[in-house]
Amino acid sequence: MRDQLKLTIEDLKRDKNITCLDEAKTKQAIVLKLLNILGWDPFNVNEIIPEYSIAGKRVDFSLRINDVNKVFIEVKKIGEELEKHQEQLLNYSFKEGINLSILTNGITWEFYLPLYEGNWEQRKFYTIDIHQQETKDIVSKFIDYLYKDNISTGKAIQNSEAIYQSRQRQNKLKDTLPKAWNKIV
Fold first, then answer.
1. What gap in Å lies between CA 123 and CA 164, rounded to an integer?
2. Which of 10, 49, 51, 113 is the 20 to 30 Å CA partner of 102?
């Protein structure tokens, strides 16, 4: 799996035509391909539900284990600015009690813990950028957060929480240190 994921990421990095993909093609050519490599069956509509309905609205994919929604993925076309879609995805996730949500345009993958405290940006614990990051790091993070076995066992949430808590500590230090320094000076 790791080698296949690495080859796919390398292919995405080299593909000059990738920027021409619309949302539907991004889902098919990138998202479903990566999910398949990560152990999900794109042909099993009980495992990957496309256009999952929530109160009259739809999220692009619901990843399920034993008929329970585990992950929501909202897909936009390549080049689409993701920030303006955060609230939509996280509201869907919050209403359904989803612990892990992903917003992607195929190249950038933003990972969220929607049930945690803070604004939308604070709930984002990790971002993968296929064009900017090293392939081995991308492969490792996809496995940590999206590999089916890790979702099934809860390890993906544990990995996510560890990053989230580390980030929260860093933010607290960033806020607290200047104030403490000013008091000393």
1. 8
2. 10
